[in-house]
Amino acid sequence: MADKILLGVSTFPDRETAQRISNQLVSEKFAACANILPDIESIYRWKEKIETGNETLVFFKVSEERQSAFQEKLRALHPYQVPEIIFLSISSGLPEYLGWVTENCTPAT
Hints:
Alpha-Beta Plaits, 4 strands
């Protein structure tokens, strides 16, 4: 079951945007959970310039089966032109928790 769970990572311009989008993704079962880490500092290259800014980082728990739908929905909701949307495979974890993630990413039939 562990190979079917992903940790999705994305940054947002502020806490309010992260909360609003995370709430929608969890409510609509694109993700089982979102952990919001406000006030991170990001340094990155954008359009040939080095930029620095405060952002909010979110960890999403996503089933592999919902990965494409999650990415499409997040991309549509995200305010950035090119949002950070990356996935890390979960190689192991508490089986009950991993089952809970899968259950909570399954849309009602």
